[in-house]
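I wish you would study the pair of lines that follows with an eye to the fold:

===
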Amino acid sequence: MTGAIVFDLDGTLIDSAPDIHAAANRMLADCGEAPLDLATIIGFVGNGIPHLVRLVRQARDIPDARQDEMTATMLAHYTAHPADLSTPYPGVRSCLADLKACGYRLGLCTNKFRAPSMQILDALELTGFFDVVIGGDSLPVKKPNPAPLQAAFDALGTERLLYVGDSEVDAETAQRARIPFALFTRGYRKTPVAELPKTFAFDAFDTLAAHLPALVAR
């Protein structure tokens, strides 16, 4: 089989929220502020670190003038410990290995900056599965703008088969790029599954491949 499949990272391939939570609370501690709980931080994930920092500031009534300083602090804490607590979701490695073995070309498109994304992929031994990695700073725009996803598929250079993600941002990105979308239901979305546009939804990576022959046939 041939075709290109692009994946989101946070909440799709890996549960990265514990490391993001830890870095955010280290940032808040540096500012003399109280920590936020994990559920709150999960609600802020999906649009990249600068956006997350903005929401953290708002939650603690920290002035806008500190945005750049706090973003730099958050990035420093996160890149120092990007994968201490993060883990791939069950079945991810075997799913990616099987897809590669079947001839699919695989890419990654995330709103996380590319450098920490590569650190995480290396630490979790996932790097070798991907022919291209597009980060939140790879282009002037981020998801849900379709350009990063389109750039990932362009780099893969074959039929645009499927985008796999977990969130409202991913669903909108796929819709705007006119790419079939698979929604992983165990990630960080806030909206009910039934309300998100998708080609199909799945809750375990050992079931993903079963959906592909129908997409290839189309």
Q: What stands out?
A: The mean pLDDT is 95.
